[in-house]
Amino acid sequence: MGRPGLNRRQLLATAGGLAVAGSFGFAALGTGADALASGARTRVRYWNLFSGGDGANMIAMLDAFRRAAPDIDVKDSTLQWGNPFYTKLAMAAAGNRAPDLGVMHLGRVPGFSPGRLLDPWDVGLLARYGVREQDFNPRLWQRGIVDGKLYALPLDIHVQLCFYRKDVLKRAGLLGGDGRIVPVTSTDDWFGVLKEAKKATKKGLQTIGLWVNDQNFQWWFFLAFYTQLGGTWFDTAQREVTFDTDKAVQVLEFLRRHITDGYADPALGSVNAEQFINGAPFAWEGNWSVPVYSGAKLDYGAIPLPPVFGGQATHAESHSFVLPHQSDRGGATNEAAHRLAAYVVTHAQQWAAGGHIPAYTPTLSTPAYRKLDPQSEYVSAMDHQATEPKVWFAGSTGVLAQRIGPIVVSSTLGSAGPDAVARRMKRELTTLLAMKNPMDGRTAAQGGTAA
Q1: Are 305 and 162 in contact (CB under 8 A)?
Q2: DSSP letters of 5-26?
Q3: DSSP of 289-356, one letter per residue?
Q4: Strand intervals (E) in 99-252
Q5: Which of 324, 436, 359 is nearest to 391 (CA)?
Q6: Could you tell me whether strands 385-386 and 314-317 are parallel, antiparallel, or unpaired per DSSP bridges?
């Protein structure tokens, strides 16, 4: 596949997106924000990449802000997800035609030339509107800091999860007294669970869907389990590759075994959701599948990827608000952009309906959030994030995933051996470390990406 964003959007735009939109009583096509709102004194131009269920939830949050702040008119524009969005945002910032507020995946921020294509947040102004550093996971907040300044305000984390069918696992004797999957703390535990689940699975269904053909998902899964093993990528100066090929081989062998032991079928690699809805016991997917599975009325649960290598870690990215560079940034419009971003971040209960974990931690302790199922089951992922290294070539669908992902796939599918693949991954990382960021012509070691 190589383009999980399209699958994600297609799914959310159908069952999941319609279910979420319908549940809140609004259309997912927008609310006529092009006209200047009556009584508004300031306009904020806001670019985002949210469509489907995410787009529906964002529209609801923007409409709530419009009611709360009628003096601010929000002109929101949704652009195509992925690299087209980042290309247009970079060109607008470079040409001094940038919107007042934008959205980026947090992992892409270091490569976006902070200070040249992005402006820093005024943390004092954010605090005035209720956003303070102490209300965020410390590591998540620090990921948005470049050269001592905050360039990205986290809205959420979105994580890779282990979805499981409670009805199938109950037949297999794999549910605990709390109605959740039995604990898994080793690779032996995990493959033992798969063995029993397979016995209770209907014919024609795979035991687990884990996107074995997809370079992005395979990279995300590798990243999670490599992090569980304590694996590292580069030294602190970002001049030397510290990638551990022995640890990499362990992860590659683990992923490959799902196919060789007959639990995952490469021929079904692009229909994981359909298989899970039809009764497959497991699917490893992003949390954006929550609206799809809840909309299908499944009896299911979701946990972070199992800690099969001891430490807990699951792949995480983050949608974040950014201030695209404007030569004359300031004044009432800039303050309104801060106010809008702060409002959305601190009113993210709505955003959790799409499966995302809100970054603003007070939301996570509210009774309303605790009632969300399965969101409350995997909220611990906030404290166990496996993130890409903080380098210019990382981030959602970035150069790192494009280069390393296909190499991981070659091992998972068996076209190359784990030892050879691990060595190839290290060589590719060495090449990437020496490459210059096309945004500013600097390597990772020269790029000022240290927190």
Answers
A1: yes
A2: HHHHHHHIIIIIHHHHHHHHT-
A3: GHHHHHHTT--EEEEESP-TTSS--EEEE-EEEEEE--TT--HHHHHHHHHHHHHHHHTTHHHHTTTP
A4: 101-105, 118-119, 145-146, 149-150, 153-154, 156-165, 208-209
A5: 436
A6: parallel
CB count in 10 Å sphere of residue 331: 9
Q: Indicate whether 65 pLDDT > 70.
A: yes
Max CA distance (Å), the chain: 65
pLDDT, tens only, 275-329: 999 999 999 999 999 999 999 999 999 999 999 999 999 999 999 999 999 999 9
- Integer Cα distance of 259 and 275 in angstroms: 16
Average pLDDT over residues 383-411: 95
Closest CA to 440 of 146, 81, 144, 100: 146
Among 343, 350, 348, 351, which Cα is nearest to 71's? 343
Backbone angles phi, psi at 396, to 5 degrees: -55, 125
pTM, rounded to two decimals: 0.90
Identify the residue whose tokens are 């943390």: 123
Distance separating alpha carbons of residues 82 and 407, to the nearest angstrom: 21
CB atoms within 10 A of CB 327: 7
Q: Which amino acid is at 109?
A: V
